[in-house]
């Protein structure tokens, strides 16, 4: 307070243009207020039977907690939650984080010339628009695609339509391919910050390479791990375009994650009230997960 | 040195294997895009031609390219203008409740867009904004908390002494902002502009809900519609379309790589 308050009083420049400055803030305040209003509105909609078209799009009524009850009593939500859990766990936590870490560790001491190629390829995956990645992986895993042409057919098997037979693993692999760059960059920076002497000392004391990673390096980069998990979990949990463009949630409901379930219920079936309840539930889950990771970030060790 | 050399050779071999996995989809993409007779198979083209790129830039596809430019540039410009207008006063004036406001922006930033998609759609429908204009406004609203925080931190690093010196020389506040503040924070503004640009360029869900006709689609929805709904897949066209679509997003990053590091340092709230 002491540092900033004199500026307002002593600077005639700012007080002369005070109204201009305050007027400049109005558009932003209006838009932020709109965002708050929409958030509140989504919450309110979740207690109504509002629909996209038809009579109930105008004459909707309050239905209390019906929509929330439906989350647990009707088929769909819990299934989608389970699918989302699998998708997040394998593509973000196991895939992107672990592969990102292993690559960051392996590439640090590499001078064979693979590093620049791999780094650019990983970054390209990350920078590519979601739908381009979806197209690439649909084509790669199709019956005439890359994997069949290079691996399956030469080994003497019939070509496999991967998206039909293994939809969830395919979207998980595609998401790992697309998203590992973030974890890789974060862990590269984290490993740069680990002092060499500490690792060398552990080596002298007779720690095996695995022990060095597990007991020395990982505890030291714990805050980075928590930050990484926080962001990729939130992103992956609400991720929509890649999966939707590749499978549309199918075949059947095999790849219907929560974001796709929300989209289907709201805009294909048209139950906007139920859709809002799904989005509130998603927000709550994301909130709980964030708190969990933030605690992990704070906890001293 | 014996076991060490073996270990590093195994390491290099493993990395090369990973590199092949990561690179091969791109190789496939390029081979098909430049092959006028592409079938989606991995073959070296008999003839190399730009026919696919010509297709990807004409007709509906060309129209969608322009739509994407309008959508992305419109969102980026609107976001940056609104953010600058609010971030400068937030940085310079000691407004009561400022810190509480900035912290609420941090919380709003965490909000996933899917959470407000239903009200956004409903509002756009009731106000006749189910078009590119509506997507621009909606994306600006969603971008604003993050952009505002970023711009406020940029302005915090511009020394106020320069502005006061200019004021003593007789410059008006408007002149000071135009001639001193904006030029000094040009790098920061560029980063924020391109950041919003790529975000809007990649955006899929909002245009999918808001856009009604094929000629009104941006490239994200256009590409989705082209490979999702056609019976016979035109791999050459789709590959070229993908490259055209991906190029700006990828190019902007490598163009701004150096600025990124300085630009994104310290995105927290400072009192």
Describe the structure.
The complex is a heterodimer of chains A (301) and B (271). With 301 residues, chain A is mainly α. Chain A is built from 16 helices and no strands. Chain A has a single domain, classed as MetI-like fold, CATH 1.10.3720. In chain A, α5 (77-108) runs antiparallel to α13 and α15 (258-268) runs antiparallel to α16 (272-298). Chain A is globular and about 70 Å long. Chain A starts with a helix and ends with a helix. The model of chain A is unreliable at 1-10 (pLDDT under 50). Chain B is an all-alpha fold and 271 residues long. Chain B is built from 12 helices and no strands. Chain B has helices spanning 2-33, 51-56, 59-92, 98-110, 117-126, 132-156, 160-168, 173-184, 186-202, 205-210, 219-229, 235-263. The interface between A and B is large, with 88 and 81 residues.
SSE sequence of chain B, one letter per element = HHHHHHHHHHHH
Described by strand count, sense and barrel closure, the largest sheet of chain B is:
none
How does the overall form of chain A come out from the CA principal axes? globular
Assembly type of the chains comes to heterodimer
Radius of gyration of chain B: 24 Å
Number of helices of chain B: 12
List low-confidence stretches of chain A: 1-10
What is the first-to-last residue Cα distance of chain A?
34 Å
Mean pLDDT of chain A: 84
- Low-confidence runs of chain B: 262-271
Beta-strand portion of chain A reads under 5%
Q: Biggest protein-protein interface?
A: A-B, 88 and 81 residues
Helix content of chain B: over 70%
Main location (chain B): membrane
Pfam families (chain B): BPD_transp_1
Keywords (chain B): Cell membrane, Membrane, Transmembrane, Transmembrane helix, Transport
Membrane topology (chain B): Multi-pass membrane protein
